[in-house]
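Would you mind giving me a polypeptide sequence along with per-residue structure tokens?
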Amino acid sequence: MTYVMSDIHGQYEKYRKMLEKIAFSDDDTLYILGDVLDRGDESMKILYDMSMRPNVIPFMGNHEHMAEYVLRKLNVEITEQSLENNFTVDVLRALNEWYENGGQPTAKEFSRLSIDDREYLLDYLSEFSFYEEITVGENTFVLVHGALYDFSPEKELDDYHPLFCIYNRADYTKTYYPDKYLITGHTPTYLFAPECDGKIYRKNRHIAIDCGVCHGKNLGCIRLEDFKEFYV
């Protein structure tokens, strides 16, 4: 079976309960569309668990992008040269922006890891996808964290700027493809569809799966073979 979830935001227990609920096995595939990190206290635990599962396909979210940049700059031995090269105004500005968006719990957790584990997880983060098109049964799905900015149905996925795909938000009133489904996270569904409070949004051949778990709502997951929804 093929599953998709997104925006776990450090909620390790809910992530584990979801894997149990869907009876996730080695024969299944799980796509996680970004924002595993930040706000919650156990982002690194989720990241490490994902990295041990070859059938979990990770995507870059804006929180991963912010975290990877800052953590790579700061994960160095403190020397005069490293202070000059790594602790710049731009890095400090990025650190502040990351903290303002919930990065502090992730930074604390990361600081408690061994040097080897830090390097391992940073290397894992660097492998995350930005977008992907998959076919499940008779349906085709385009997967991306945030949006296909400056959309055109004739565009190839590789023609979209990766950073625009993770920081911009989709237009949920719009049908992007007449013959494909677009699946996104990034924007909690209750913000644009109050009737979907804590639930997956499905309309206009769009499936939005950020159910707002970091705002006290649900972690959502959808199975693509039959569109069955799961919640923790």
